[in-house]
Amino acid sequence: MVSIAILAGGQSKRMGRDKAFLEVGGRPVIERVMGQVQSLTDDLFISTNSPEKYVHLGLPLVPDIYPDKAALGGLYSVIQAARHAHVLVVACDMPFLKVALLQYLIDLAPQADVVVPLITPPQPETLHAVYSKNCLPAIERRLLADQLRLIGFFADVTVRYVERDEIVKFDPEFHSFVNMNTPEDWQRVQAIAKAAQDS
In terms of CATH architecture, what is 3-198? Predict the structure, then answer.
């Protein structure tokens, strides 16, 4: 069993409003994400420094231990908070998560400290990945040195990259990795959701 953390800490600057509550298929996207991952864990929580926005969702809320350290600070805090040895981290703005693919990542977790999809090298999908508690010392060193690149600590831990040819079996269109940073992204997401509804 793994813990699961939904990262809702982004500033949503390019979107112009809080993307966690944009509707996709008639539901706020964060509620879609919650519904998709709930069956995979007994320890589901949200990473946020604005708890008042998310308290109505009824999940535990985890603030950053080291504030103002970008996504790396959020990652450190959720690994620390997780009840299990591994935590699956997903972003709050990925409306098309595939449970079977997430389960595949979880099944690989004992093999490495990080299990992360690699769709478009060299940038892995760090907010759709599984991390072990072994990552904590390496992440903390970088936080304290203000080296906030999310994959910077990968050099100090074992990483299992999940390649495109593995992912395609579960998600041939790679829709799991579609997220919403801009109004244009949201339009694209709406189109995908409508096509799925109509098919």
Answer: Alpha-Beta Complex (3.90)
